[in-house]
Amino acid sequence: MKISFVLLLLIFVGYSKLLAQTSDTFEKKIYVADRDTLPYRILYPENYNKKKKYPLVLFLHGAGQRGSDNKSQLVGIPETLTSATGRKKYKCFILAPQCARKDVWVKFPNFPTGLQATTEPTISAKLTNNLLIELEKELSIDKRRIYITGYSMGGEGSIDFLIRNPHLFAAAVPICSVSDTSKAKSICNIPLWAFHGSLDDVNDVKYSRIMIEALKKHGGNPKYTEYPSVKHASWNLAYKEPGLFEWLFMQQK
Question: What are the strands of the beta sheet with 171-175, ordered from one edge?
Fold first, then answer.
C-alpha cells in the first residue's frame, strides 16, 4: 500500500512538472465572438519566421479537460512535438482550444442506438473553426498542411471537424473515437490514421472498426492501429507510435 502511494505521488509530481513546462511554451489567449469565448493555447514554431510557411496541428482534448482554466487542455499533447528535440524536428504551430465544461466537440443525440451527429456544430466546435480561419489570416500557416488530432472526446471531434470541413485539413489522427459513419464518403480520400485499444471500456473499439470499414467501402485507404489488451488511454501509445509524425507531416492537400 505504501509503495502504491509513493508511485502515485511520483507520477503526479512528474505529470505536474511536464504540464508546467508545456504551459510555459504555449501562449495563453482567449478568442471572443459575440458573447461567446474560447480559451486557447498556441505554440509557435521554434525560431518562427513570418516569411516562411509552417504546418499547423489542431489538438482536441478529452472530456476530462473541459473548462475555462486555459491549461487543462494541454494534457495529452504529444511530447514528441513539444520536446526540445521534437520542436527542432517538427517546426509547426500547435493550436489547443479548450471546450466549455457543459459543451462537447460533437453531439450524438441518439447514441448508442444511432451515430448520427447534430446538423449544426456545437458552440465550442464552431468557435474553434472560426478561430482557425482567423489564424490562417494572421499567421504564416501553410494552408496545404493543416492537421487535426485528438483523443476520446477529442478523437470524436477530430473526425467531426473533418466531416464539416473536408477541404480544410490535410490529414487526421483520431484516437479512441466514436464517429458519424453515415458521412464516411465525404472524407474517404483524406489521409487518416486511427488508433484504438481493443479493451476500451469508455468508447468501444467497435466504433473505430465500423468507421474504418465505412471509409474502405467508399474507396478510402485509412491506416488503423489497434492495441491488444489496451483500455481507453490508448493515446499514450498512439502518440509514441513509430513513424506517426513522419507520416503526418508528409501529408498535404
Answer: 27-33, 36-43, 93-97, 54-60, 141-151, 171-175, 193-197, 223-227
| Torsions phi, psi for 228 (to 5 deg) | -65, 140
At 141-179, the pLDDT tens digits run 999 999 999 999 999 999 999 999 999 999 999 999 999
Please provide the DSSP assignment of 30-42 as one string. EEEETTEEEEEEE
CA–CA separation, 180 and 85 (whole Å): 37
* List of domains in the chain: 28-250 (3.40.50.1820)
Q: Tell me if residue 149 falls in helix, strand or coil.
A: strand
> Does the pLDDT value for residue 2 go beyond 50?
no
Secondary structure E strands in 44-140: 54-60, 93-97
Take residue 10 and report the three cell numbers written for it: 511520483
Q: Model pTM?
A: 0.91
- Helical (H) or strand (E) element with 60: strand 54-60
**Chain-centroid distance, C-alpha 206:** 20
